From TrEMBL:
Pfam families: APH. It comes from Cohaesibacter gelatinilyticus. GO terms for molecular function: amino acid kinase activity. It comes from the Bacteria. Residues 38-270 form the Aminoglycoside phosphotransferase domain. Keywords: Kinase, Transferase. This is Ser/Thr protein kinase RdoA involved in Cpx stress response, MazF antagonist. Belongs to the pseudomonas-type ThrB family.
Amino acid sequence: MNGVVKPAHTAPDLAVIVKAALTEWDLMGADYHLVAERENRVFQVRHKNGTFALRLHRPGYRIDAELRSELSWMRMLSDQGLLVPTPQTTKNCQLLCTIGGFQIDCLNWLNGTPLGKTGHPITIENLSERILSIGRDIALLHHHSDAWAPDADFTRWHWNQNGLIGEQPVWGAFWKNPDLTASQRDLFLEAKAFANQRLSKYHTSLDYGLIHADLVRENILLGEQGTQFIDFDDGGYGYRLFELATLLSKLTDRDDFEQLKAALLNGYRQVRPIDTALLDLFMMIRALTYLGWIIPRLSEPGGTARNARFIATAGHWARKIIE
């Protein structure tokens, strides 16, 4: 994302907005509380009819067509049996409404345990088996997305060559990260040029289509019924290897990384084939994107330390790939 801009609404303002939204979804009188406040404000809503996630989207970040596209995609995946949040319609059969300057939607609440959390070791038992199952479900997400014919007004951004390593990447110009030394910036510009050369040569043969694009540990929930994927905010069109690299990039510090990578790919290939010859290239590209993503977040608590980790990781992959 290109910045975190929070609207100037006080707590009483938000209470009025949330209560008005609950009326739109016929959830009057429900208990609610704020559970997340970053890109979007997310409220857990408890009502006699169920538990829901009410999302107040950051004003100015997405147009309505993009949000409706995300919701229609999620609904299709849910209809196909994937465990993803199911969009709920308002009393007027709408997936999205605008109140007080916020675009608002409502999803069913998924109960599950996150695969892990940033900065903490994964403690899930039988992790290889879990990762294999996750690989199957990622492949199913891609399979159903390829088989789907969205409406003509469907619009999401593209994690393509330009969106990843062009002059204006989706997540920002990573080579302009202010904490880079001159030698690091040169290294990452060299990595950018190398990746562009490789993708220009091979992009037409790569599997490309709708991807979640943010399957980090926090967005993968483990529940009684199976793997659940949440937070499709970054979803769009992209390389399927980029999808796999996103998850793998958060497992590289483990001693059993190669075993987990094999499990993920084996699970994926149980559903659909994928050529992984360029997987390491996408591991590097994924690492580079985080250098752009962090720029508007450097002032957040822990931002500097997080950036240092991102720089070290990107440097490792850049040297591994181009040297």
